[in-house]
Each structure stands twice: as C-alpha cells, then as structure tokens.
Amino acid sequence: MPKQAATARPGVRGSRSGRPIMALLDLLGRRWTLRIVWELREGALTSRALRAACDEVSPTILQTRLTELREAGFVELTDDGYGLTALGRELFATFTPLNRFAERWSRQAGS
Amino acid sequence: MPKQAATARPGVRGSRSGRPIMALLDLLGRRWTLRIVWELREGALTSRALRAACDEVSPTILQTRLTELREAGFVELTDDGYGLTALGRELFATFTPLNRFAERWSRQAGS
DNA sequence: GCGTGTCGCTACATTAAATGTAGCAACTGG
DNA sequence: CCAGTTGCTACATTTAATGTAGCGACACGC
C-alpha cells in the first residue's frame, strides 16, 4: 500500500486511496464550500450577492472556492452570475436529506 | 437583515441565520470532519487506528475534531474506541448517496 | 514491581490557510 | 465623463492545521 499519491487529482488532499469519495470529501471539507453550494441552490447569484449570502466571506477565499468548484464541474459562471451546473444540482440533491437531518439534530442534540 | 448572531451554537460559525443546516454545514466543513465520520462507518476504531485511517492526521486536529463530533452527538468513545452514535450513523446514512455521486463525478469530470 | 506496549490525549514550534481591507480593469448605464 | 456595477486580485494580519515529541494511565509478561 504505497503512501504517495496515486491518481489523486491535483490539489486535492486525502485522495491517496484513489477513491473518488475521498477527493469529494476533501473538496467539500474545505471552509465555505458546502455553504456556497447551499446558497446557490435556488439559482445563480453574482459574486457579490453570493458573498453577502455567505455572511461576507472574504473575496479571496470566495474566489478560491469558486475556482475549485468550477474546476470540479459543480459551478459555472453565466450571464446571471454563478450558478450550479447540472452536476452541481445533483450534488446538492445528495445533501437534501442533510437538511432534514439537521432539523432533527438541532432538536435532539440542540444546545 | 440583522448581522449579529442569533441562536448560533457556541463555537459554530455560519449559523447566524439560526438554521440548523448552517451549523451542521459549518461543523462538517471543517478539515477532516467528513473523513472521520466516513472512516468510522464500519465500526469503532481506536484513536490511533483512526489516525492511521485518516492518512496520519496530526493528533492535535484529530482530538479537536473528535471533541467537536462528540459534543455534537455524532461520535462516542466506548471500550472499542471511537464509534458513531446512533445519530452519527444517521448522519452517515445521509451521505451514502454522496458516495454514489462521487463515482459518477469521477467518471464525468474526472481528471 | 520492572520493562514493554498500548491507550487517549496534550505541548509547542512550524507551516499553511482564511480573513479583512483596499482596489484594479472591464463593462453599463446616465 | 462619471457613477455604479461586475469578477477578481494584492497583501498584511490573524487563525487553523501540521508534525514531532511526549505525558499519565492502564494492561500485559516476567
């Protein structure tokens, strides 16, 4: 079991096993990534509107994440601003159950 | 649209809206959190085994994440080591579709 | 009851990432 | 020409993650 990178996509940690889920978990496990996808769920937003939606993230990291998400094929820049691609909407769909879970969680383990 | 914190749980960013999903997204959007839950999917692991599974994460951050996950009620420390709670297994179940999606993604947008 | 080995966990110095503020070039109206 | 927007970048500061080492506690064999 070699320790060095195998087919890992560039810049994606935690994917040494070659399992795509690792690359995805790594990508989504970066700060604001999940949030960005979440905020785009209802349609495209301009970069500034998205920034506002994301509680005024620094534009630096917003751009970084948007670039990553565009390279991953989840987000695209259109005339309406940034929006989810078909693939991105699929991704979002996979964590729809998460929303429901979050509601239950907040009641159960809630502060 | 108030800018200050509402019901945000302590130490959890991005939850100013009071929506639990934000708190959850924030928690899961921290480095290694998703991975840890993933690695515990098949049963409990000792902290050291978990560390090995997570590509030798630094114990510092591993402990930090484990503490957060325990406080969130997703992980517990038993005689067998760290394991997912019932709630944690529910959480894991919500991103099972993600695994399938990851496979498709790697073929579609693959490097 | 002294080594060896593991457990969960912590200290701390180093390196990497995120934040916040400011501002650029390009375009679209007045 | 000017004011307002767009996407995006520079850069200094702050925060988070990494890597190495090691602690006290518990379980073995001896």
Write up what this structure looks like.
- The structure is a homodimer of 111-residue chains.
- By secondary structure, chain A is mainly alpha-helical.
- Chain A has a domain at 32-108: Orthogonal Bundle (Arc Repressor Mutant, subunit A), CATH 1.10.10.10.
- The first copy, chain A, contains 6 helices and 2 strands.
- A two-stranded antiparallel ribbon of chain A has the order 1-2.
- The A-B interface holds A 7, 9-10, 14, 16, 19-26, 28-35, 38, 55, 72-73, 87, 90-91, 93-95, 97-99, 101-106, 108-111 and B 7, 9-10, 14, 16, 19-26, 28-35, 38, 54-55, 72-73, 87, 90-91, 93-95, 97-99, 101-106, 108-111.
- The first copy, chain A, binds a DNA duplex (30 and 30 nucleotides) through residues 30-32, 46-48, 56-64, 66, 77, 81-82.
Outline:
The structure is a homodimer of 111-residue chains. With 111 residues, chain A is mainly α.
Key structural traits:
2 strands; 111 residues; DNA-binding; homodimer; Arc Repressor Mutant, subunit A; mainly alpha
Order of helices and strands of chain A: HHHHEEHH
CATH class descriptor of the domain at 32-108 in chain A: Mainly Alpha
Strand order of the largest sheet of chain A: 1-2
Mean of pLDDT of chain A: 83
Shape of chain A: globular
- The N- to C-terminal Cα distance of chain A equals 43 Å
CATH topology of the domain at 32-108 in chain A: Arc Repressor Mutant, subunit A
Biggest interface, CB < 8 A: A-B, 44 and 45 residues
| CATH superfamily label of the domain at 32-108 in chain A | Winged helix-like DNA-binding domain superfamily/Winged helix DNA-binding domain
Largest β sheet strand count, sense and barrel closure of chain A: 2 strands, antiparallel
Using the CA coordinates, give the radius of gyration of chain A.
Answer: 16 Å
Oligomer: homodimer
Helical coverage of chain A, percent range: 40-55%
